[in-house]
Design goal:
three-stranded parallel beta sheet; single chain; 13% strand; alpha/beta
């Protein structure tokens, strides 16, 4: 096995039972929901125990510096960004790594 990739938007949608594109449910769709963050933390921990790499793709680490910090503190191996979010994401990761 080469590793795992967490799709944070899909995981959030699954964990919360909320369609991210639904205006009716948009207020409960949050990458900061404690259940979502715990699932991400658990996934990273399990991957580390198994000795495989784990990454995340999603918008939150580029939009929220504190989310990037959370991922760095959990030990994420890689984070993918959309081209329009790349520079913000890199800056957030660099700041998070300085604080860890």
């Amino acid at each position: 096995m080469d590793g795992f990739s967490i799709g944070s938007n899909d995981l959030t949608q699954l964990a919360l039972g909320a369609d991210r594109d639904s205006e009716l449910l948009s207020e409960i769709f949050s990458p900061f929901d404690p259940a979502v963050m715990e699932l991400i933390r658990m996934s990273i921990t399990k991957a580390k125990v198994a000795g495989v790499k784990i990454g995340l793709c999603g918008q939150a680490p580029s939009d929220y510096p504190e989310y990037a910090r959370f991922l760095v503190e959990c030990g994420i191996d890689s984070i993918s960004f959309n081209p329009d979010a790349l520079m913000a994401g890199i800056n957030n990761i660099n700041e998070a790594e300085k604080k860890s």
